[in-house]
Amino acid sequence: MTPSVPEAPSKEASVKEAPATVDAALADAFASEVDEAKLIRKIDLNLLPMLTILYLLSFLDRSNIGNAKLDGLTTDLNVAADNYNTALAIYFVGYVIWEVPSNIVLKRFNPRIWLPTLTLLWGITSIAQGLVSNQAGLYAVRFFLGTTEAGLFPGTIFVFSMYYPRRVRHFRIAIFFGGAAVAGAFGGALAYAIGLMDGVGGRRGWSWIFILEGCLTVAVSLSAYFIVPTWPHSATFLTEPERTYLLTRLSSDSDAADIEPFNWDGVKQALGDHAVWGYALLFHGFAFVLYSLSLFMPTIIAELGFASWQAQLMTVPPYALAAACIWIVCYASYKASIRAPFIIGAAGVSFIGYILLVSTSTAGPQYFGVHLATAGVYTGNALLLSWPAENVSSQTKRAVACALQISIGDLGAIVGVLVYRPELAGNLYRTPHGIAMAYLVFGSLVAGWLWFWLNKENKRRERVLSERGEKGLEKEEGVNDVEERRRLGDRDLRWKYQL
């Protein structure tokens, strides 16, 4: 059970943090008809359940290869130990290549069509993964699985940025990302159950893991065409007063109410913004740990001396703890209106977990270390992945920034799966674990730098505004002009960064 979703801030408490593009009088006209907290909960009900389920399935279909390995995948396909790591890396190659193009397609078209179509395609690819008969087939399927899954996460983050005010957005993204932790817990138990089908229909248990979980994804994707929302300007679940009220409130908070066509200038701005690269490098540090841990957890636990079926089931508690920590810590971050220290603290918890993994040799402390490492890195990722969605404007720039964060981040995942190679597996993976600790330190340093720079920039803008005065700013920079404001985006002096 997830904790209660925080309500939207009251109109009295809301602070204007970006230029408005819609007359605020419209919101006042509908104020008696629309309750803002109820409206946010209505958006929650229409966005969170289905999109979270899609991400749960996405993470399940990419990480179940770790469970399949314990059920004999590499032996049956004659995949050498090193080549198994290569198969894991190939997935992320496809993922990295297609994330930015996928979000550009999403910006041009409709999430109701694009996101379910991606889900359908990777579900079919997952089924095909259960039908491969050799190493080359496994390589090809893993590449196409990465290609088809690439657009879901950055696409959903962008959709959230079009519906939610910035202050309440990151908790919703945390709930969404919690689907990854739930997938880990659910996947271990499900893999154990499906593995009992070994020999049914002449197929091995690992084959059935891919086939049945892929069929589940295909079935859900077909229903998603009727449930995933379109852009708020044309969302049918909103009444006309609700839509007008929402767009008006969003226009005082960000650019979400604009109908902005795709433009290449936004792409150039994203690529030239050092903060955008900071968000990407932050995820790069955490992604190394996130994916190496999720893909190798069954193996790490099995090498503590447990049987394969025990290792499958023993992956459930660490992921369950991670899901709980995500929702609790992200709620605390929401209430405190700050995330950077929570990201650094989460990295510290994960770091302690790895200390236990590299400094102990008995199963009990090692398994406890897995719990801490998992809870810390999943919580940190849940917090950091919403940062560019809240701090980057215009829409095109934000779409590219969200995708770029995942692309650069997943280069860390490629490094991670290649580092956890058999020749470095001695002493219960102590050398790869040590490298993971270095990546956590790197991620913490980037988070600290972003915290320092964003806070410094906020103060600089406040000082400039105070010196110039509101009227002077409008006269000098034309901030009343919608096109000019759209062009400036987060570079507008009145845009306040979320820390």
From TrEMBL:
InterPro entries linked? MFS (IPR011701), MFS_dom (IPR020846), MFS_trans_sf (IPR036259)
**Which SUPFAM superfamilies would you find in this protein's record?**
MFS general substrate transporter
Residue ranges of the Major facilitator superfamily (MFS) profile domain?
A: 47-459
Molecular function per GO? transmembrane transporter activity
A single cellular component GO annotation: membrane
Q: List all membrane-crossing ranges.
A: 88-106, 113-132, 138-161, 173-194, 206-228, 276-296, 316-334, 341-361, 367-387, 399-420, 432-454
Membrane topology of the entry: Multi-pass membrane protein
Tell me yes or no: is Electron transport among this UniProt entry's keywords: no
Pfam families from the xrefs?
MFS_1
Q: What is its main location?
A: membrane
Record's PANTHER family?
Answer: PERMEASE-RELATED, TRANSPORTER, PUTATIVE (AFU_ORTHOLOGUE AFUA_6G11320)-RELATED
Name the UniProt record assigns to this protein: MFS general substrate transporter
What organism is recorded for this protein? Calocera viscosa (strain TUFC12733)
